[in-house]
Write a structure and sequence with these properties.
alpha/beta, four-stranded mixed sheet, 2,3-Dihydroxybiphenyl 1,2-Dioxygenase, domain 1, single chain
């Protein structure tokens, strides 16, 4: 099997979904779409198509728990430069854990921050071609 993208969907746990939505909308300059079901609340990251990689903030206290150390580390798109997003993190209530760091000239840069919910989230930006 060959993957077009290694990730097809991700979910970021929240303690306060409205606070988390405000944080992510502020640092990425986006509008998130609510999708609330009886068992789970979600705030969807915008995508051009449902066939693209997508994800959401999620809230269900019995299924999700934010974590600074446990579980997978999700890398969100930080293009064109992760620094543009890092510059907004602290003002929006987050904390920078790993500043902008070059992976290599061909693989670009990465960074890690803590969101308002206590999750560690990474950013990745690729070099301009």
């Amino acid at each position: 099997m060959v993957f077009t993208n290694a990730i097809s969907w991700f979910e970021i746990p929240t303690e306060d979904i409205n606070r988390a939505q405000k944080f992510y909308e502020a640092i990425f300059d986006i509008a998130m779409m609510p999708m609330d079901m009886p068992q789970i609340k979600m705030r969807m990251f915008p995508t051009e198509s449902p066939m693209n990689v997508g994800g959401a903030l999620t809230h269900n206290t019995e299924f999700y728990k934010p974590s600074a150390t446990d579980g997978p580390l999700v890398y969100l798109n930080g293009n064109p430069d992760v620094q543009n997003i890092l510059d907004k993190v602290e003002a929006a209530g987050g904390k920078i854990v790993v500043p902008k760091t070059e992976i290599s000239p061909e693989y670009g840069h990465m960074a890690v921050f803590m969101d308002t919910e206590g999750n560690r989230i990474a950013l990745h930006s690729v070099p301009k071609a």
